## 1
Amino acid sequence: MFDDIDLRIMNILQGDARTSNADIARQLGMAPSAIFERIRKLEARGTLRGYEARIDARQLDLGLLAFIFVQADERVGTMTTGAQLAAIPAVQEVHHIAGEDCYLVKVRVADTEALGRLLRECFGAIPAIRSTRTTIVLSTLKESATLCLPGEEREVAHD
């Protein structure tokens, strides 16, 4: 599906999405035009879905991270509640999950008061939500959207 060059390009872009085609070409010993064409194809296939800046949430007074398990009364296969949750600005991720709960939602807000407002005003406004369970993150040891690509397996640290 992907050759070694594609995987190496994706790995470089995961490390720094601002890496220029010329820099990638230098690293891989290829012409910038060939890199440009490969990136364009990866984008067209939907493999490269976008490029985004990673912003320190604490510097924007959004230091409280929480995960919310949501139970909803909706028919199996219906994800209307998930779409409504995804539309809330403080929500970063919505995952439809198996088990007792229907959704796992990641949110960032300023503090516990803001979290309470979010639960009451936004989650509470969604009629299908039956209950929520919230876990507040005390500290984050690792947070990444980087994938471990084939051929790029990272070493596991051992103590």
## 2
Amino acid sequence: MALEKRFPEKRLFLRSDTETRFIRLRSETQLLAWAGGAVTVAWTIIATAILLMDTIGAGNFRAQAQRDQIIYEERLNAMSVERDHRAAEALAAQSRFSLAMDQISVMQSELLSSEDSRREMETGIEVVQATLRRAMQEREAARDEAAVLTAALDGDTSGIAGRRSSVEASGTVDLLGEALAQTAAERDLIAADAHFAIEHAAEMELELRLLEDKTDAIFRQLEEAMTVSVEPLDRMFRAAGLNPDDLLAAARRGYSGTGGPLTPFQFSTRGGATDPETERANAILGGLDRINLYRIAAERAPFAVPVHDSYRFTSGFGQRWGRMHNGTDFAAPTGTPIYAPADGVVTFAGWSSGYGRLVKIQHEFGVETRYAHQNRIRVEVGQRVSRGDRIGDIGNSGRSTGPHLHYEIRVGGRPVNPMIYIRAGQDVF
């Protein structure tokens, strides 16, 4: 009855030329029709509201994306400025090292020359002292002999034999006097030479002290430069998750020859323990050798960016749409060159399912890099490439929504974030 009050039964008449028919609209039918219309209107309102909210949210998302893009570009510009600054510092450090090596060469020559001069002076002084000792001994012997002859003259001198002995003794005394005079002259000459040698030795000692002060100042500058240059390299490799000692050991195994400018110094030719200056010089040379090995290791580890032209980061390392994205995407026009970030050997170059045209390069220290979605591959399997060699072109092959490079770094088969290596390299180079 309540339903009948709300929706009384109605009839819908349908009339034609020959007959008239009607349709009975019961209360239940009207209720169903009204409920269906209400549901349709409600669905229309809700769908419209959702569409409007999505449109507004999409606008906010685009604005946020634009703001993020501006912030990211500013960060990239700041990183570029910092990289240029670091490159300038590296060039300045290299210039300082070249100047330091020249100063070390001059210093080594001066030290060797002063060592030879000092050794000659010591030898001369020893000769002078030996001559003085011999002259003193000869003088004492002559005095003893003169005393003996004088005592003989004071004895019995009678007769012809006495006069003959007196004549002979007088001749002997004259000979001894001449010998004593000659010995005295030689003694005076030797004393003058010894005095000159002592004065010259004092001057040499002063020059050696001045040279030692200059050498100490040079060593301090070199040691400070070594500290400033080596510590950023240590931080770079540690930030990339690599052990610097293992890297240096691996690089040293490939370059184990000796000789050249990094041979340890030996300032003294007399053998024995090394002096402090030699140890400091050898420590500096060890630091230079460490930097040289770091340079070799840096060329064999992928610290460089594989794209040198203009590009845009479109996707980073991590979860994306519920799946793991194992690399970093560099968006750039089709045909943009792709360069090897380090020395290595090509282990794969061809088509690989979702990767499209793919290149794999095996580097030292168990590091592998991958370059996917290429338009053209420019290397072959087994080819050895160097840092900066062109290995392919950016494309849109495989599962890709646009031309870009999918860049991966794997250490021991495990994917790592490529930006760790790129940022570590930018902080130093």
## 3
Amino acid sequence: MNSEADTLSANSLPAAPTAAPRFGETIRQTGVLFSAQTGAMVVNLLVSLVLLRWMEPTEMGRLAFCLSVILISNLFFEVGIFAAGSRVLALAHNAEDQRRALGALVYFAAAIGALLAMFIAATSPLIDLVFHTDLRWLLMTAAALAFFLPFQLLIELSCQGLNRIRQLAIFQLSLSGLYLSALLVLAVRHRLTAKSALVAYLTATGIAALLTLVQLRPAFQGASQFIRPTLKEARHYGLNLYLARITATASVRLDNFVIKYFVADIALLGLYDRAQKLANPISTLARALAITRFRAFANVKRVPERITKWNTIILLASSLAMAAFGPYLLAHVFPKYADSAPLLVPFAAFNLFAGLFQPYNTFLAARGHSAAIRNIALVVTFVSIVGLFVTVPRYGTLGAAWAGAFTMLLDYLLHLYYYRKSLKAEAPIATQTEK
């Protein structure tokens, strides 16, 4: 969908030199990122083994709920700054301008992190009141470390805009590796609880983000000149993606809140969370592929058919494998969590559709069609909320899982619709340019 906001954001910055994407480069960068994400996936599997071995479902539920509170709060404070900054970085003319623009984003991240920490500490009593939990002191303990969370999104979107895929890969491996190391130490010392695991995760995020920033080498001298352009871009392009990110995350994170509100036993939330995490790797390659093509998609007219073809084949194969063999493996490898095995089938479908729309989502974002992404997210979030409030009271966690699968199917269909619409909208512009 092309609006005045889209046109303004697309023309508010000077275009970078056009460079058509090379499929060999696509394969190489996707391989690098996917290898790192595969490594991180293996590390996360070890994380799951540690948590499943030493943490009871009740503690797992407490950890999952608190993480949802912190992560969603983080998204509300970001206000589209880093999405706008990613586009500013992608369109920058030279390396020095990129470093200064990155320095401006670091300033933004520090300010957002401070506000986030104060917000979590202030609202923790209200969380207990609304959801009938006893998590106030856990959230207050984690509030200070939540300062580092905005830096995670800063790193991910900056590496995307700069096409620094190797640094992004290192960041993801570092984050997973540091978290696993901390959990192992806690487990050996018999101190692994929801509180200690949450502190370990936030600390690992901070350390990994700082190490990656050192490699990216932001420049703070002269960075102030990029604050105004970033804010200008955030008002249109960034704001639309901010609304899209909030609503999209709500559609996949709101389930934890609805489950906790309607289901008294927080251990069921722990079972739900583990099944969800086991199925998430299905869409890992699709996300890696989309991230590596962000900079290239800004300068092409359509998503290459080779990308969509192989993306679909791999997603179908992995989803069918998870649906067929996942429940059996879960029951035998993690018997304490065997009751969550039926959830793997809807979660496999969820990740299939979530992976299918990734190339289209990145293409729309890179081409400046942020209003389309916003519209998709708003529709999907509304349907997700309705679905959760209808299914969870009656069917519990299984209802939530199937409601999520349906909303991801809708998400994919809407992305396909807006992608085709964007091609038709840009066709007259391309024709005039050629003339």
## 4
Amino acid sequence: MDGRMFYPAIFQPEEGGFSIYFPDVEGCITQGDSMSESYEMAFDALGNILSYLEESGKEIPNPSEPQEIQLVKDQFLVGIEFNMLEYKKKNDSRAVKKTLTIPSWLNELAIRQNINFSQVLQEALMSRLKQ
């Protein structure tokens, strides 16, 4: 599995846009003025709540099968694709301090050449992880 999940969002047309909620994710409600903005707002709302649940050690709910969801007049379903790792890449740029050890001669050589250790480590990790 590649980490993607598809959460059904219920879109309710309103005057001037849409209200949106996720039947599987308690409290995940948002709105938008256009279909495009509504999708983006739904994605952001879903990401915020699922990230909070993960960071809090709480269970992330499984998405329902779309055919199991009952709609009322004018409502329609939109599948919101979500990938936690991709979401974090775009929205979580907090720095995490790491302590590492390198040979003294390598440290001196790198300092003489004004190498940014953090940048080199990030680039190397991203290259190794093919990100």
